[in-house]
Amino acid sequence: MSRPQLIIAPHKGKAVLRRHPWIFSGAVQRMVGQPQEGDVVDVLSADGRWLAAGHYQDDNIVCKVLSFDTPEVGTDLLRSRIAAAVAYRRRLGLFDQPGTNVFRLVHAEGDLLPGLVADWYNGVLVLQAHSLGMHRLFSTLTDIFARELEPYGLHSVFDKSSATVPGGCTDGYIYGDEPAEWEIAEHGNRMLINFFEGQKTGFFIDQRDNRELVANLAGGARVLNCFGYTGGFSLGALRGGAQYVETVDVSRRAIELCNRNVALNFGPEAPHRGVVADALQYMASAEMRDRGFDFIILDPPAFAKNHRSLQQGLKGYRAINQRAMEAMPAGGLLMTFSCSQAVSAADFQTMLFTSAIMARRQVRIVRRLPHAADHPVSIYHPEGEYLKGFLLEIS
Fold first, then answer.
1. Could you say which of 67, 99, 116 is where a domain stops?
2. Other Cβ atoms closer than 10 A to 170
């Protein structure tokens, strides 16, 4: 029995021909059949040529493409894509890094598996689906991962899709043992992960290289880690010899885990303070200004979830960056990020320019800061380069 079909309107097929893995609803002239959320559909041109196959979504992105080359999108294709993803991380040396045992194993479109994120946490594999079609494949995917990762000591598989799958699901272990808490290591720092309560898949793996850069720059500095979550950047700063580190986050649970992570690595007397507070309000306070921070890290959540909220999101980024620039001494360093896919690198740099003007400070770009190499970006899907960061010197 043939699958449902999406027929692309005339003159609307350029993105498909350029192998962009998202089919938008506005490009679809009509549907043949009645696809349901998560079904595999074929994508055809107006004159009937087969173009692609992927998972149907009842959304603006109506299809996430699994293949432009063959209509066969079953287990064999999944197995080959996962094997390639594992081989790529092996070439990067990620399975045997000294002092680090956490990294991204599958980066959705960047590994030709749109709708799937898979992160490796010292033997626990966390799967997160961003489409119902991919979530339905978790049993098959788990079997494939179990075979591919057996040489590396796969301990458990955790499904962390409750917030990302249409209709929701229940987070929990779907393979192996079920530890309530798990320990990982990054650049020699030990960290505790709670997969049930943690953000994203449990930790912000994409900042691994940037946390190492903080360690290289933080010697003798007074560091403010704003939106600090469980303290990844703070641990890097302490490892690098910071004089004093403060971690600010609105989540009490995140700060409690941050404090535990600091004590685990540097003992109860470490020069660190965890602060439960709204970051924007804290940055406007006299308390913050009196601390004399000369290295500030801003890694906020996505202020612009989509293009409709872009301008409002940019206002939020501008507010926090302006306040940071105003508070810093001459020669201070500001490491600032946006993880909003809707915010382009050009948008973000223009926002920083405006922040510098409004703060009346001289600002130099020291380095642009992308996510780590385990987050590859398809040349056909520039949206995959979601993390934008800058290291700035303020004078």
1. 67
2. 7
Integer Rg of the chain from CA: 22
Q: 138: which 2 tokens?
A: 């978790």
pLDDT in tens, 284-319: 888 888 889 999 999 998 887 777 778 888 899 999
pTM of the model: 0.94
Residue 302's pLDDT is what? Answer: 81
Helix (H) or strand (E) holding 356: helix 345-359
267-300 b/e (C-beta count within 10 Å ≥ 16 → b): eeebebebbebebeebbbeeebeeeebbbbbbbb
What are phi and psi for residue 104, nearest 5 degrees?
Answer: -85, 130
User: What CATH number does the domain containing 14 carry?
Assistant: 2.30.130.10
Mean pLDDT, the chain, as a whole number?
A: 95
The CB density around residue 386, as the number of other CB atoms within 10 Å, is: 18
Q: Mean per-residue pLDDT for 36-59?
A: 96
Q: Are 50 and 13 in contact (CB under 8 A)?
A: no
Task: Please tell me whether residues 253 and 355 are part of one structural domain.
Answer: yes
Chosen domain end from 123, 155, 188: 188
Q: Angle, nearest 10°, between helix axes 252-266 and 232-239?
A: 30
Structure confidence at residue 268 (pLDDT): 92
215 with 362, same domain: the answer is yes
Note whether 216 and 162 are same-domain residues.
no
What band does 107 get if pLDDT is binned at 50, 70 and 90?
Answer: very high
Averaged pLDDT for residues 222-236:
97
Q: Residue 214 is part of which domain span?
A: 204-394
Q: On the CB side of 366, how many CA atoms lie within 13 Å of its CA?
A: 14
What the block records as the tokens of 105 is 């194993």
Quick one: pLDDT at residue 311? 87
Number of domains in the chain: 3
Q: Where are the alpha helices (DSSP H) in 138-251?
A: 138-149, 208-217, 232-239
310 and 371 part of one domain: yes
Distances (CA, A) of 308 to 165, 303, 311, 312: 21, 11, 8, 9
Do 247 and 380 share a structural domain?
A: yes
Q: pLDDT grade, residue 171 (50/70/90)?
A: very high
Is the domain of 106 the same as that of 40?
no
What is the spatial distance between Cα 297 and Cα 221, in angstroms, rounded to a whole number?
A: 12
Question: How much is the pLDDT for 356?
Answer: 97
Contact yes or no for 66/78 (Cβ under 8 A): no
The reply to whether 106 falls in a domain is yes
